[in-house]
Amino acid sequence: MDSFMQAAIDEAQAGWDEGGIPIGSVIVYRGKIIGRGHNRRVQKGSSILHGEMDAFENAGRQPASVYRECTLYTTLSPCSMCSGAILLYAIPRVVIGENRSFMGDEALLRSRGVELTVLDDPACIELMARMMRDKPALWNEDIGR
Fold it and tell me: How far apart are CA 40 and CA 58, in angstroms?
């Protein structure tokens, strides 16, 4: 397994262990993680701290030139909000753990030239299956249902 996707999975597991939603993300620049995060909506009472948004927040203020060279790894297909942030910061590549349980705005990202790789990773699939099975109301809240 790719070490960067494993780091995103570790973030997702941390979110679950904290009582939250198991979605994690890391932002990689020139072979180094510059931001990592996981969904903290439950833990922080936040409306926007999805895994990708938390990774952006933890990366801190970066020049546009840095983001234009980054790859974002996420355990789940990015929602509209997170896809918007990816486009805003011109992240050129996104590696997605899985998109079976939720199909985000992949078509939009592709239409704007973002290179997407979907791994269909069993660990990512199991994290979300467990979430949907054990905490369906929380899952529905997170995706706006």
Answer: 12
CB 52 within 8 A of CB 37: yes
What pLDDT score was predicted for residue 144? 65
**pLDDT > 70 fraction of the chain, expressed in percent and rounded:** 98
The token pair at 40 is 């903290």
pLDDT of residue 142: 74
Kindly state the tokens that stand for 54: 């938390």
- What the block records as the tokens of 126 is 């199991």
Read off the pLDDT of residues 7-26 as tens digits, 9 standing for 90 and up: 999 999 999 999 999 999 99
Take residue 69 and report the two structure tokens written for it: 């060279």
The torsion angle over the Cα atoms of residues 25, 42, 106 and 92, rounded to 10 degrees, is -30
Q: Which of 58, 57, 40 is nearest to 49 (CA)?
A: 40
Give the residue numbers marked as catalytic.
Answer: 52
